[in-house]
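agent> Task received from the user: take the single chain below, predict its 3D structure, and emit structure tokens. No templates, no multimer pairing.
agent> Plan: (1) validate residues, (2) run structure prediction, (3) serialize to tokens, (4) report one or two observations.
agent> Step 1 OK, no nonstandard residues flagged.
tool_call: predict_structure(input=
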Amino acid sequence: MIPISESAPHIYLSALPFAPEHSLVAQKFSSRFPNTLTVIEGRPAQWPFALFTAEHNKNSVECLVFSPDEKTFAFISYGNVYICDSETGHLISGPFKLKHYSSPEYACFSPNGTHILIGYDGSAVVWDIERGEEQFRIEGGHFVFIRRGRWHGRIASINEDGSSIQTRLTRIRVKLWDVENGTPKSITLFEVMSGGVTQFSPDGQFLAIRRRSEEVIQLWNVEDGKNTRRFPHPPGYLYSLHFSPTSDILMAVFEEPKRICVWRLDTQEMASFSVDIVYAPPAVVRGPFTSHLFVPRIDRVEIWEVTMTSSHMIFKTKPLITSWITSICPSRDGNKILVGSEDGTVRMWDMNLARNQAVTMDTQDDVRKFIAVSPSGKMVATQSTRSIELWDTATSEVVRRMDTGSRVEVAFSLDENQVAVLSKSLLTVWDINNLENCLSFDPWPTGTRGFYDTQVAFQTSDHVVICVQLWGGPSLRGSFGT
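)
tool_result: status=success, residues=482
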């Protein structure tokens, strides 16, 4: 981008030679300009589907949200709010330091995009992102800006009174907050008894409530306080409720048993299928004929196709991420998705490009889990039920594979020439460049096995490997091997 912006001839000198081999640009123009540079090795086949990687801090991304026109997005990390451009990822406003820091549960923009509401457990703050100032703080359980109807531009909130699982007499009051003059004024819209898990739709039109007295989710109209629809669901412990960005899909996530239920609000048709949600919460987007479910894993995002008759994983994203995924936020049409990580990076993925490059897989395949990253970040280690694989993060290719059949801990040496693999009863140090050159031994003294967890690391000299077992009986035990 920089050479082209400084000098037009670099369109031919830089852009064309490095255009991916199978891209439309290369296929259409390469033959027309034969007397230019040629990439002999390492030329990619397709454009990367990561449109940008924003690195504005080094702390975990706790929350991501698009603005109403999706031209900007906000993310929250370690008590700071960042406003970024959705085309480039560049910071355009902030960071704004929150006065009262705790981990946020969600965030949403005002209808005109000038304010952002940040919700916590039991309260919320409203920020003027043009002035960079906190407007006010209000108490309650959950909040949303109302984007339609007579309460347009105001804030609705949920307050619970008299909560008791035994008596099931939780009273949920839906209040209205007038924020035009910066001073909140409380107006009670309606009340619901025996309520459990709750969730507002993104446009503020609906409130979904799981009734504790029966296995049903009720949909209430916020404007008139009427119970409009009922969604019976299978038995189980309901963990959370979610709406699609366009407020036309309702999704329920169950912990026991592991299950997701998806309803179309217009027809009330339900799709129910088994999927394990472990880390960040999933997101759902409705398409013309099917809905797509985005399920974040440690280092990837799975995309499920959901219809009223069947549900299956259609692909998972291919390139590895060297830090845990902590939050995701799809666009309204599902063509783009923001992915936030534990190391503070935010990526924008083009899902149309991702579909062309994705690894198609069946849900019964051997799913790999991210377990370690090398000091320089040039390699990552993943584990499946059958092997450990070392990946080159620049090319997303497997460079080494080691067979293993149990849960292990992995550590790279500082020079990245060795990797240590620690299982319950065996430590193996491999030469990455020559896997036949390895050393294995039992690092634990007799009678100290049966521990709960382990850790392994190289000392700075790379000639000492440190092994630690946690919860190893009555006291913490450690063992050192050279």
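agent> Step 4: summary for the user.
Helices lie at 2-6, 10-18, 24-29, 351-357.
agent> Done.
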